[in-house]
Amino acid sequence: MTTTATPPYCGRFAPSPSGLLHAGSLTTAVGSYLEARCRNGIWRVRIEDLDPPREIPGASRAILATLEACGLYWDGEVVYQSRRHGLYREALERLIAEGHAYACNCSRREIALAARAGVDGMVYPGFCRSGMRAGREAHAWRLRVPEQEIACVDRLQGDCRQQLARDVGDFVLLRADGCWAYQLAVVVDDAEQGINDIVRGSDLLVSTPRQLWLQHCLAYARPGYCHLPLMVNAAGEKLSKQTLAPAISRDAARDELWRALSRLGHEPAADVGGLDELWAWAFANWRLAQVPAGPVVIGGA
Ligand code: GLU
Q1: One domain for residues 46 and 172
Q2: CATH assignment at residue 171
Q3: Looking at 183, 200, 224, which one is the last position of a domain?
Q4: pTM of the predicted structure, to 2 decimals
Q5: Is 186's C-beta closer than 6 angstroms to any atom of ligand 1?
Q6: Does the Cβ of 48 fall within 6 Å of ligand 1?
Q7: ∠16-183-196 over CA atoms, to 5°?
Q8: pLDDT in tens, 72-81
Q9: Same-domain pairing of 195 and 74
Q10: Residue 266 contacts residue 285 (beta carbons within 8 Å)
Q11: CA 133 to ligand 1 center in whole angstroms
Q12: 19-69 residue pLDDT tens
């Protein structure tokens, strides 16, 4: 008799070391961890360190130490994107060979003068689609996007769709300065690491259709998606280093976890116990249906 084994659930948390963990990123990590562990799944951590100028020295180590202090233990080795350029290069070569990617030597200014606004910045006007302008060396690589609607159903946010040509335009895979774009690296890594479910912050929902299209072009399996609510400050701004969100305190790990659970719609009793008891409570009580879809306001008055 033959049986078809279903691969185990495999999720991940993929912080960028451009800042320390704050209430928003810890809450995302906790939600993604609980989705994985409550399905007896694997949970990986990948450090997205592809943009050295934006990196804070020591942030990767501090993020990992904070995850551990809060009781979030990953499976396998931590993966660093900065060590995986070869994989991104291979994927780009395939996209070029199959006619999906093309070189572009437009300047920012040329694009800004001609482009209209899309859902996430300018929509590239397509000047280099059928060949670059002569006389310039440095060039980026872009992915050709279709005029069809790309859609998926997010477990928490519901229907998510974009017409990429209209809403985003042909987007960058490798920048002219040699930096790999997030969109390419994330898709290659998720596929290569066997990630079959992606739980992350809602600020990335706008990127999901681009990633679905890249998965299609590279013939990768499509993972499931669940975008957790965005954590915002009293002014409605996403918590981040730029909006001065305070770093998570490792010494207060138990209380930080309690607050993360409460932001995710889970209210353990205040006297539930220490970190271990709190995790035991979370494993027993985690229900995605209780998590709010919309923004959660943190801090303020
Ligand atoms: N590195 C991204 C961030 O820190 C997350 C990427 C992802 O989860 O797809 O915002």
Answers
A1: no
A2: 3.40.50.620
A3: 183
A4: 0.95
A5: yes
A6: yes
A7: 85
A8: 999 999 999 9
A9: yes
A10: yes
A11: 34
A12: 999 999 999 999 999 999 999 999 999 999 999 999 999 999 999 999 999
